[in-house]
Amino acid sequence: MPQAVSIWLLVAGLAGAGLFNAVGTPATRSGFVRWGYPAWWGLVTGALEVASAVLIARPGTRDAGLVLGAAIVAAAVVTVARHREWSHLAPLGVFAVLLALAALPS
């Protein structure tokens, strides 16, 4: 049961984050630029997050989605740690825990 809950929380979280990044508010775009990415990078990140959510939602592609999600979270952790923006680590930690729980054997 905890695995199923973590899977659907992960799907919802990645889809929501993906839509938020893809829409790209001015603050979101300036954050990517501050971290050394082009302003449009939020669209790429958002598309990858939504793709990960879709893959995780489907049992046949779940493993690929979890790997993609883990890569996204790892890249985000490296980015925020490199720029010492520690406040971003808490939500990334939640994603990491959900990814780990979702990856547990059923």
From TrEMBL:
Regions crossing the membrane: 38-57, 64-81, 87-104
Main subcellular location of this protein, as a coarse class: membrane
GO cellular component term, pick one: membrane
UniProt-listed InterPro entries: DoxX
Membrane topology annotation: Multi-pass membrane protein
Parts forming coiled coils: none
Pfam families reported in the protein's UniProt record: DoxX_2 (PF13564)
Protein's UniProt name: DoxX family protein
Keyword Transmembrane in record: yes
Alphabetic keyword roster: Membrane, Transmembrane, Transmembrane helix
Subcellular localization: Membrane
